[in-house]
Amino acid sequence: MSLKFYSVVFLLAIFPCLCFSQLSRQQLRNLVAFSKALGYVQYFHPADEAKLGIWDDVAINGSKMMLEVKNDQELLQKLKSIFLPIAPSVQFSDNAKTISFEKKNINPSDEKDLLPVFWQHLGFNLYSGVMERPYYSIRVNRSSPFEQRNQYTANITGKYDVKKYRGLPFEFRVYAQVQDSTFSLPLSLGISGEQPLSKSVVLDKSVGKDYVFTGKIGDSTNYMVFKLNTNLGIPMSLGKAEFTVIQNGQKVKPLEINDQKEELKNQVISLEVKSTDVPLFNEKLHFGEYIKTELVRGIHFLMPLVVLGNERKTFPSANEISGTLSDSLTRTLNKDYYGGSAFTFPEVRLADVIILWNILRHSYPYWQDVKVPAGRILEKALADAAIPQSQERFVQNIRKMTGYYNDAHMFVVAKGINDSLYGPPIALIKIKKKVAVKDVLSKASPYGLSPGDIIEEINNRPVKSLLDSLMDYSSGSPQMKTLLALNNVLGSDKPGNITLKIRRGNVVARTELQRNEPVKFLVPGNSGYLKRPNGWLNPSVYYFDLTRNSLNADGFKELTKAANIIFDLRGYPFNQTASDNLIEAIITKKLEVSRMFIPEILYPDFKKVNFLPLTERYNPSPANHLNGKLIFLADASAQSAAESILGLIKDYHLGTIVGTPTSGTNGDVNIAYLPGKLTVYFTGMLVKTSNGKKHHLKGIKPDVYCEQSVESVKARQDLVLQRALSLIR
């Protein structure tokens, strides 16, 4: 389609009408108080009542309650009804003077073998099921619930007919052996079921042996079966198991049957293998530590951070005070909360905000780079979530919420939503304050566009205004947000047409383009006409694109011959082995560096946080050693693994970096799973430069700054590569 010159026409965009329902001041106040209390209790109150699997239900059910609360007295009553069954030692009041902490109130005088129980977090273990995540959460001096780990359950016996042995004692003997004596955590073996059973025992790591457990057959039990509960990360094997009943002083073997039908009045005995949670780090809490804070103005909250517990339970127990929470939740929760229509419920949308906000409030390591106060983020996100909206609109609101955190690892995925965008086959680039056509990706160039054309308007809106709007819905450094906005500014969720106002020199024109090509989420900086194959640029200079090629033995054959090598890292490395392989081919002596740090969290609100350093070790590779001069090309599309490479190059003067600053986001991600099948990724660890300076948002600054110009784009030149070559000549 050729360019058409015509006067500006303002088009009215028609959007479907949605009914708006704003939160009242009381509702917002209720939700904020509930949100903060939930985070404190979930992550920092160590009572046994706070089971792992309840928190989505608590967040949804509590949000629904908060929408109905009419005043502060009712708010206090509801907060107590929600949290006392989970955390029986917390206190709520509208008067700070009426709540106080005394050790004696949570120290049972008639219990023995009491130990302090408290949370330690290395980051937050959000139970993603990904075993290699480096984040752990434990309650010291308790055993972690199996939901935290890769749970494995299997029958270890057949079904026993015990109808004629009802009420009699039994003995269960099983051979167990720890296969790895160096396994760091103590392992205990015990049995659990409906009837009183013998205590668990600590496994001997030096030798396998028989372990004997006792119990009583239920008075109405027909059949018994023994199951194993463990997780795949525990190095233990089981041998022969034997079940006997004590009848008239004699051991009798009940009949073992093969019938696997489910029968009424079965008694299932679980043989549980647990690793007792020893401290993750040296810093500990002490009995008597607590927090006292104001959730919202006039609503005060007190919570012990340490409780006492023995093998049976923690104290005080909620069972005698207010029953169990799970039953009340089961009665009130709607099964549709977890189905495809989940986002039609305001309580689900509010719960997503509350859960995500708390995860980030208490574990996100870059709060110094968040410019908006945490409380304001919560209020704004709650208000946005309360408005009736489509699933797509809600996901956009969550993305807007993540934008405050300035983390380019932070992105949102929603099951059931097609995030694909369609756009015209052109790529854009920002040069100074102008947005230009970088490349026309269609060979036929049907739109009459040329590289270097300046885009001034998109569908009659100034391009700067559109970019600014898109940047509000992404997270990261300014350079990364700009890159993401450029990728998406021409996109739409449906194919269709788009109108551009173009300037070429002194000529202004308008053209209509078709949005019919898939839009990539993040386009490498060396895409389009800048893309080139590996090879010799001249007899002394070899070019190698690390974003599209694996650095293997074949690659090193050519690289080791080169007097000069230009590595292109304008994008993400093709695979993560590039870091180890490349650095070890450059260094001449062993290198150890600590740049990444996991938060050691004991207190709420990310206070008094220490950090555990992670050590990287690199050993020289003489066979692949690169003797030539090394130059690296970089820009904002170099992020995470690319920055791990470039950071070492910069800090240890292993080569010269040419281009523009990198993204400024590195470190392993953590993953939050929210109700309604929403998933949010974020950076879970702090990353610095090798010499301890700030990396986040700043990125890695090049040794030689160079970027494209309108003229170089028009001529389809790679100014950054040319500048690198000029350093060699």
Automatic annotation (TrEMBL):
Matching SUPFAM superfamilies: ClpP/crotonase
A Pfam family per the record: Peptidase_S41
Stored InterPro entries: ClpP/crotonase-like_dom_sf, PDZ_sf, Tail-specific_protease
Domain Tail specific protease stretches: 495-707
Recorded GO MF terms: serine-type peptidase activity
Taxonomy, superkingdom: Bacteria
GO biological process assignments: proteolysis
Name assigned to this protein: Tail specific protease domain-containing protein
Protein species of origin: Pedobacter roseus
Taxonomic classification: Bacteria, Pseudomonadati, Bacteroidota, Sphingobacteriia, Sphingobacteriales
